[in-house]
Task: structure prediction
Amino acid sequence: MNVAEDFQQTFNRITPKDNSIFLLLWHVLHLILRVFYFAQEVFQTVENYLITNGIVKAYEHLNLQRVNYLGVVIDSVEARETTEVIQLLEWLSDIGIKKVCLYDKEGVLKKSKEVFVERFNSSKPSNDDSKMDSLLNKKQMDFEFVSISDGKLVVAKAADVLFKKYYLDDDDAEKPFFTESYLTDALKTLGVVEPDPDLLLVYAPARCHLGFPAWRIRYTEIVHMGPLKHKKYGLILKAIHNFTKVKQNYGS
Result:
């Protein structure tokens, strides 16, 4: 008797009473999870209030020298909420972040990059002194916009470089086993020299980087922040503070 037949016989022996028990257990488990996530949301809300209002003093002074380049991953559906994204960037600007890599899988943020650049980068000089003062006092931010298509294109080009270099030039030579160093050299040949983010904040339902180029997060600290609509200023401060306190070992 194979496993499938054994499972089928076991399933056939389940009575309506057993089904009721399983259904009850399912509802109990569902209730426990709902209570857990509700309690977690309440805790984060209280924590955000305490941090934002300066009641918790540990997050007042951040070592932003450790965060030279910040990556932000946003779910493509939520990336369409431009107002939410702008508010997030304003918070980062208030904190003092200068360079941000914005990523979403479908490239939605790329389509709105003029809005972000105009809002956070310098514009043309004006003869109005008041406007100039306002412009000079405005915190500037530099952006890089990335989508999954960028990663696919770069990998394809890097593979082409390696193929031409090691498989077309000399057929008699021993073919190497491609490692990270080969990919790095190929990317440098292509002129792909963008820095790796020091910290990556992920705003999405799923706890993953949603296809962010893997070769750029080899030593990156990744923090899942939940959905964009539930973003909290205090939790951003906490994530940056915790990152600056971490000792990173890059190997020998």
Q: What stands out?
A: The two ends are 54 Å apart (CA to CA). The first strand starts at residue 70 and ends at 74. The chain is about 50% helix and 10% strand. Confidence is low (pLDDT under 50) at residues 122-128, 130-137.
